Amino acid sequence: MDMNRHEFQLDDLIERIKANDNRLVALQVPEGLKMQALEMMDSIEEDTSARIILAADPCYGACDLVHDKMQRMGVELVAHMGHSQMNIDSGMPTEFINVTYDGDPAIDPVLPILEQHRRIAESRLSRVEEDRQMSEEEAKELFVDAVGRVSPLKGTKLGLVGSIQHLHLIFEYKERLEAVGYEVEIPVGGARLSFPGQVLGCNYSGDSDEIGHYLFLGSGDFHPIGLVLHTGKPLAMLDPYTGGAEEMSFERIEKILRQRFGLIMSCDEAKSFGILIGEKPGQMRRNLALRMKRKIEKHGKKGYLLALEHIGPELIDFYPVDAFVNTACPRIAIDDSVRYAKPLITPFELEVALGEKKWELGYKFDEIP
Ligand code: SF4
User: Fold this and answer.
1) pTM, entire model
2) Per residue in 97-133, pLDDT tens?
3) Helix axes 37-47 and 11-20, enclosed angle (nearest 10)
4) HSE-CB for 270 with a 13 A CA cutoff
5) Is 82 within 8 Å of 33 (Cβ atoms)?
6) Hey, what CATH topology would domain 108-248 get?
7) Is there a contact between 247 and 238 (Cβ–Cβ < 8 Å)?
8) Which of 20, 76, 31 is nearest to 52 (CA)?
9) CA 94 to CA 285: how far, in whole Å?
10) Taking CA 143 as the corner, what is the angle to CA 142 and CA 148, rounded to the nearest 5 degrees?
């Protein structure tokens, strides 16, 4: 990754610090940009009379805003870099700093994948009725169709999404794709998302049944995995850092779904659950955790509420419970469950394990609205 091609938009932050005459500012940067943090601190301190404290704990999203701990340290303003504002109040004045990447890859490498996916979407649209009539047994065998059954198709549009540092290019890419014959929709999501086309690892609320397949502008498979688990729709990826194109394979998604199904089955005999509540402002789902506790108790089992800021195997494995239900960042259960000694499942998966929801009617991704 060429860091010189990232633009850190510090001007608004510097203006705000000067206007408020802030003396102590906390800077929060995502993991991938921490190497540049000291340089940024120098640059802000040179241009203002503020001292900068790096909030050096790991930070993976705007759900993890610096909050009252820094207030107790006397911090007056939080500068949060690389993520956009979401529908939470951390209790601290916060300036969000945009980071953009100028990579502008050609669409040619991704076109053959998109063509194939458009055909899949067209064929799915033509057999929506058949899918509706599929028996529960058939659906159970077809993990990917089980995901697809969550949102029956009404169209075959190409949904164009991206990670935040590439969203400034999204309308230009829409025009390029329309010029080669695609009907493109840039999804607009709910209050947790700030920009058209934006997706988070825990929120794909812009999805609509008019969209038959997706193109993701960004790198890595974190967002693509979540989007396909959420929608069951084919997804191509175009990486602005390398110009490379690939698809999120159905085999990969099927493997994840088989693993999820195995974890649900392994909770069949569980008598006690640890219910994890995330303390980070944008991950805290106390009411959901309490609802899960009530459900567990209704089935004659024990549920213990455990609140944590960070969640890791070393922090929970030793509790004498049979399994854990995660209500913090949904991706902890989905992406990291193999690291834990006991089954770690999502609230939907708990409901399936308790017999209250049916897996066969469609896998439900754990979304934070
Ligand atoms: S996926 Fe997890 S880390 Fe990312 S924004 Fe959502 S809750 Fe936060």
Assistant:
1) 0.93
2) 989 998 899 999 999 999 999 999 999 898 877 777 7
3) 40
4) 26
5) yes
6) Rossmann fold (3.40.50)
7) no
8) 76
9) 22
10) 95
Torsions phi, psi of 81, nearest 5?
A: -105, 140
Q: Is 278 in the pocket of ligand 1 (CB under 6 A)?
A: no
- Residue found by looking up tokens 């055909």 in the block: 119
- The domain defined by 3-100 folds into Rossmann fold (3.40.50)
Sign of CA dihedral 158, 242, 198, 100: negative
State the Rg of the chain over Cα: 22
Residue 344, ligand 1, Cβ within 6 A: no
- Which of 31, 57, 63, 365 gets mutated to test ligand 1 (max ligand atoms within 8 A of its CB)? 63
The 10s digit of each residue's pLDDT in 227-245 is 999 999 999 999 999 999 9
| Mutational test site, ligand 1, from 64, 88, 200, max ligand atoms within 8 Å of CB | 200
Architecture of domain 258-361 in CATH? 3-Layer(aba) Sandwich (3.40)
